[in-house]
Input
Amino acid sequence: MATRIRPVAGRPTAIYLRCYPCDTVRMLDFRQILERCSVESGLGGATLFLDNGRRSTEPLVALADLTRAVEAAVCEIVLVPGPFVFSLDDAKAAATVRRLEEAGGRVVEMPRPPYSATTPLVGMAAAC
Output
């Protein structure tokens, strides 16, 4: 399920999330944490781009929208919980990060590591 949200004027920060299979609860947790990190880091509100339930090998509508928003200088900073949201294949994820950065964006992993797979999401907001 892709959520297409138009970038909001005056909000140069974006959040990108993708999970396969679709995980509504975990994505809501990540969304809330990244929104909080954005505000607490002085970046203000962020525009959400969500490709929940999509494989990285499928067309990612929200990622394409995000890329266009970065190219048009509507969004500058892209917050992600990690590059895995782009692809579980490290090389493909790195290529997407490069593509966004070459388009003028800056991909920022938040909350900032180190944290582990066993770190509760509730505690991650403190790492912003």
Q: What stands out?
A: The mean pLDDT is 82.
